[in-house]
Amino acid sequence: MQKFAIRHILTAALLLAAPAFSQTNPQTDPQTNTTLLVDIDHRPATSLDGDWHTIVDQYSTGVYTLHQELRKDGFFMNAPFDPNGHPQDYNFANAPTLRVPGDWNTQRPELFYYEGPIWYEKDFQHTAAPNTRTFLHIGAANYRTLVWVNTRKICEHEGGFTPFDCDITAALHDGNNFVVLSVDSTRIADGVPTLQTDWWNYGGLTRDVSLVEVPDQFIDDYDLHLSRTDRSVIEGYVHVASAPAGTPVTVTIAELHAKVESTVDANSRAVISIPTKSLSLWSPENPKLYKVEISSGPDKIEDTIGFRTIETRGTQILLNGQPVFLRGISIHAEAPFRTGRAYTQKDVDTLLGWAKELGCNYVRLAHYPHDERMTRTADRLGLMVWSEIPDYWALQFDNPAVLAKSKQQLSEMIRRDRDKASIVLWSVANETPNTEARTKYLTAMVDLAHQLDPTRLVTAALLVRTEKTATGSNKIVDDPLGKALDVIGTNEYIGWYEQHAEGADTTTWDIRFDKPLIMSEWGGDAKAGNHAPSGDTHPALWTEEYQAEIYRHQIAMLNKIPQLRGTSPWILMDFRSARRVNPGLQDNFNRKGLVSDQGVRKQAFFVLQKAYKDRTLGKAE
Ligand code: GCU
Q1: pLDDT tens digits for 383-410?
Q2: Residue 198 Cα, ligand 1 centroid: separation in angstroms?
Q3: Which atom of ligand 1 is nearest to the CA of 592?
Q4: For 556-576, what is each residue's pLDDT tens digit?
Q5: CA distances from 301 to 36, 135, 167, 380 (A)
Q6: Keyword set for this entry (predicted)?
């Protein structure tokens, strides 16, 4: 049996697919022993970012014996090496380091193509305050992570783009401690995503890692949003982990002179309802955020939250009750200039800065939840967000264990960002095959998204059928998944994978749903600086001129679609993909960016910018 299959089965044995957050207290997944503390980036924390000792472990020697049994003396023991002692095959103290956060592929040339397990070790000092718990917070780790503290197995997590928190209180000593993690980026058939992706499989601890100390009874989750039925009322709940029924909770929004008290029920959840006066609603034109203080007993946290409603009415999308058109762009979490997985505030400011420069009021964060800095910054800049989980292409839609993984990632995505006003759309999938198993799987995902968050819209990026007509072609949007969605997303590549740019002029759209439509992807590749001879009326593919042609014809076509309520062309910036290996043109990059990875704005950037600034693309009603 193939090497990684064996490793995958054994790790799967360690990593039973995780159901959504249980009603336990705190809300920890009993199988993985992970939870997710909301607003953790606003809590005081001890950062563990920086250099970590690492061991590349292609054969998973650190976990398994030569007969593939789980080792008792694995690398997680972090045993000090004694040259005169029992022969030992590893020694973290002398091992090279990798920077955290950061993917490993762009840190060392020999790791550029590496997919597999790498061990991380970090020593840290800690003295616990009385009546507290300590969590190890991991912003994201791609793809499967096993965690030990002081040789004690603590938790595990599967999924490369959502955070997880592990209670390490019981394993800690006052003084010297160490944490050892194994992060395995191997792509797996029953993974989410699965084997094929058109983005680079950056591995490692790709987002912040820290220690967070909280009181024994602490606020681990809350939802505060504007009521759709009365836009002067902020409603929701606050969950206080380990709090007995009757425990008081206070929510204060000083700027609104609003302060409410409530008490938790038997599930440690307090219902919140705050009547307000002169609330300034969040919108791209007015990205108003309020400082919100939530306290319960010894615990207190602060957040900055915007309040707005988002809903549909027929084929319209309504923001705060008003029809809106989503002028957008798709974005991958590829770091501008330095490349690699994006995570710094600078990465975020550059990417969203370019989106604002384009004239966007919306961004599609593809195809996985991006760093929380991205959604926090979108809140501040007034950019509406489409946030997605990597149910991408051909998952094992008939495998219940895979469905559980998708549900876990959806729950984590919604839990982390449910209080971000910028997020208006949860997307459960991209370009999935129209099969019965797929439709059943994703309909269950849409239902879960609505159950977890009835205040937002649920969408997916669908493939479209094409029929030749006497005058051109007809695009038919009738994917059965559309029935379950609030907003229909469709991807098309007229002018690139199909037809020539002019083909858009003779393409009609037959949309079988009376719902808002977002053209979630369209575009074509161009290598920045690759130009057609001047005056060339038929510029060649891969030139900036041809990409600009695609945009011009697309904009004209899109304006002929009555229920079009948004668009997010593919894509803001060139990004790395192992599927793109055409030398001299691609060199492991998908070149459909309007900006190159080195910040060069291509001609099409200005075509779209003009349409957005002049408001000549799309209508809100
Ligand atoms: C698809 C897919 C993207 C991909 C793009 C492309 O539509 O959703 O992930 O990168 O097409 O082919 O460039």
Answers
A1: 999 999 999 999 999 999 999 999 999 9
A2: 6
A3: 13
A4: 999 999 999 999 999 999 999
A5: 15, 16, 19, 19
A6: Glycosidase, Hydrolase
pLDDT score at 1: 39
User: Is the CB of 580 inside a 6 Å radius of any atom of ligand 1?
Assistant: no
Tokens of residue 328, six digits: 């957008």
Of 503, 522, 448, 510, the C-alpha closest to 479 is: 510
Q: What angle do CA 322, 323, 326 make, to 5 degrees?
A: 120
CA-wise closest residue to 309 among 458, 518, 456: 456
**430 Cβ inside 6 Å of ligand 1:** yes
**Per-residue exposure over 394-418, b if at least 16 CB sit within 10 Å of its own CB, e if not:** ebbbeeeebbbbbbbbbbbbbbbbb
Residue 198, ligand 1, Cβ within 6 A:
yes
| Number of neighbours of residue 117 by Cβ within 10 angstroms | 26
Residue-level pLDDT at 26: 53
Whether 264 has a pLDDT exceeding 90, the answer reads yes
Say whether the peptide bond before residue 193 is cis (omega within 30 degrees of 0): yes
Residue 618 carries which side chain, given as an amino acid letter? G
Average pLDDT over the chain, rounded to whole? 95
Establish how many alpha carbons lie within 13 A of residue 72's alpha carbon, considering only the half-sphere containing its beta carbon. Answer: 0
Contact 253/295 with Cβ under 8 angstroms? no
**Each residue of 236-254: b (16+ CB within 10 Å) or e?**
bbbbbbebeeebebbbbbe
Prediction pTM value: 0.95
